[in-house]
Design a protein that fits this description.
Blueprint (H helix, E strand, L loop, with lengths): L1 H17 L1 H19 L27 H7 L4 H31 L4 H12 L6 H12 L4 H8 L13 H29 L3 H9 L4 H25 L8 H6 L5 H4 L2 H11 L3 H29 L6
Helix pairs in contact: 3-14, 4-8, 4-10, 5-8, 8-10, 10-14, 13-14
Length: 310
């Protein structure tokens, strides 16, 4: 074992020497990640203390797991978990598959100018803030919005419908808004993966009599399967991140029962009230659960599909 350890150390040192230019290029990224991603993780320690801003941590009372106990004893906690899982589940299913379908459809367009135009236009919503998106939705779906005006002029409805106040419609509206905003940007990596599929496979498929759908099913999808599985495993870690900007901007008091999730709950209890230790404890809990889910999904993927993230 000692000889193996020495050989490993020698190999690492040799790697640093032979690839020192590459390590030098990566040095700035590694320093950035250490300073802005890993050092702030030390702040999670306040989850175990009754932290008061401006006071030294040594002067704060150690409370152990009290913040987590308080979190699970909050009223309507299970309703909040239900909303979180439903919203995240819709994003993990419909929201995850939509960019894949969009990339596949875009790949079937052979007119280069039109294809680039559609691709560019699909990117634009990603750079629009949720404040603007909420304003667009209110303009379209408000009681005096464009959709209500069209419905009433066509005689479909006699009275305007308050779409944003309907609990039964909120999850669909929110999921549609998420898809519209992220569709083009999320499809970039799939478009790149499709471009890397060997073109000779398509020629061989055409010789074997495969049509467009057959080429997509038997060549394109298997070719980008590693990318799909990789992104799916990474997205599983965000299963408890249902977002809070869109809910707070689009949601109303009438839809609070279906839009209140863990993030908005923590924002109200932890940030607005000033319970920073509480907010940190819930954030740490979400991170631990997300990491565990990624590890489990990675192992299952390795056994079932022989593809894994690590």
């Amino acid at each position: 074992m000692k000889k193996k350890t020495k050989l490993q150390k020698t190999g690492i040192i040799k790697s640093f020497r032979t690839q020192r230019q590459l390590w030098l290029i990566c040095l700035f990224a590694l320093v950035w990640a250490a300073v802005f991603c890993y050092v702030p993780m030390l702040g999670n320690i306040i989850a175990f203390f009754d932290y008061v801003p401006g006071r030294s941590l040594f002067d704060c009372k150690f409370i152990g797991l009290k913040n987590w106990i308080d979190f699970f004893s909050l009223p309507d906690m299970w309703r909040v978990f239900r909303n979180t899982l439903v919203i995240s589940g819709l994003n993990m299913t419909i929201g995850f598959t939509a960019p894949i379908l969009f990339a596949l459809l875009l790949n079937e367009i052979h007119h280069t100018v039109f294809k680039k135009a559609v691709q560019t236009i699909s990117y634009l919503p990603y750079f629009i803030s949720w404040v603007v998106v909420a304003s667009i939705l209110m303009t379209l779906l408000g009681t005096e919005g464009n959709i209500n005006e069209i419905l009433m002029r066509l005689g479909i409805t006699e009275q305007p419908i308050a779409f944003l106040n309907e609990k039964n419609m909120f999850w669909g509206i929110l999921t549609s808004a998420n898809i519209w905003k992220d569709l083009g940007w999320s499809a970039i990596i799939y478009i790149s993966a499709i471009a890397g599929v060997d073109q000779e496979l398509y020629q061989a498929g055409a010789v074997d009599g495969l049509g467009r759908f057959g080429k997509v099913w038997h060549i394109t999808l298997p070719g980008i399967a590693p990318t799909i599985i990789l992104l799916f495993i990474m997205n599983i870690g965000n299963i408890l991140n249902a977002g809070f900007e869109q809910q707070l901007l689009i949601g109303t008091p009438l839809t609070k029962e279906v839009y209140e999730n863990i993030d908005t709950y923590v924002y109200r209890y932890g940030v607005q009230i000033g319970r920073y230790s509480f907010a940190t404890a819930v954030g740490l809990l979400k991170s631990v659960i997300g990491f565990a889910l990624v590890v489990i999904a990675n192992k299952i993927s390795g056994k079932v599909a022989d593809m894994r993230l690590f």
